[in-house]
Amino acid sequence: DKYTAEIKAFAATKADELEAFRIKFLGTKGIIKDLFDQFKTVGPEEKRTFGKVLNQFKQLAEEKYSELKEASANTADTATADIDKTLPGDGFELGSRHPLTLVRNEIIDVFKRLGFVVAEGPEIEDDWHNFSALNFPEEHPARDMQDTFFIKKNSGTDDIALRTHTSSVQVRMMENGKPPFRAIMPGRVYRNEAISARAHCFFHQVEGLYVDENVSFADLKQTLYHFVQELYGEGTKVRFRPSYFPFTEPSAEMDVSCTICKGSGCNMCKYSGWVEILGCGMVDPNVLENCGIDSKKYTGFAFGMGIERITNLKYVIRDLRLFSENDVRFLKQFQSEI
Length: 338
Ligand code: PHE
What we know:
- It contains 14 helices and 10 strands.
- The longest helix is centred in the first third of the chain and has 32 residues.
- The protein is α+β, with helices and mostly antiparallel strands.
- Its cofactor is Mg(2+).
């Protein structure tokens, strides 16, 4: 009876108290084992009543134990009761975004604010979307100019290759929709070049396309001027130099004033004060027609830049190979919230 009352009143909250309870009553040297030993010694006429009481007692102890154990597992309080919850938690290390991802997102953000949407397309392209629709004449050295990785090459027009630029996405977009188009095309592109500090067999581009009625070269200039101010800061100077691309006419390359040293000798600009960052131009009417767009009604501009180049200039990175080596000492230096 004494023990019955003790068991009923017992309310352990800590794991060690509960364990002490188990050892005291249910353990191999516990009270219940002891009582069962005594049971063997009582006379046969007492065995019936004693046995009944003993079994009830054992059941009570076991039920109490499993009930408390379940309760303690549910609250989890028993294990942490001694922990000071006002102490700050253990810190954990966050990964960081790849610098090319950071800069790509930044470029996308600037153009999104100007109303450009993001378009994507396949990295394995056919000749039409990568070259022919873009006004590259067949057998034109321009195809070699981009040092293409061909997957299938025979007649020219049914060649399959790794895309050399994301202009192919512009073609797909124009073929599948109706003007106006205002989109940027970020993506990985491939060119068969020897790997060095300044060249790689793949890199990342953001190209852009704006097609509507009355789009002019002035729109092109203002858009890209605004982009550079946002990316490299107010007051960054730009200049346009005439250039040539099969898919734009007229074509230009845009330089920015060296953002690192403003031309005073960081060597990113080879001391000239200017660095080329992109190619651009008015979409050639042939390209519009190839994509089923009326070139008498619509005009457009296009541009394309390498994200690596933009990133190098922003963070003074002088070796392209760092971007694909996954050295954490390099990657860890880029922390961000996005
Ligand atoms: N497609 C060109 C390249 O990869 C870049 C470009 C795009 C130039 C659009 C002009 C207009 O080099």
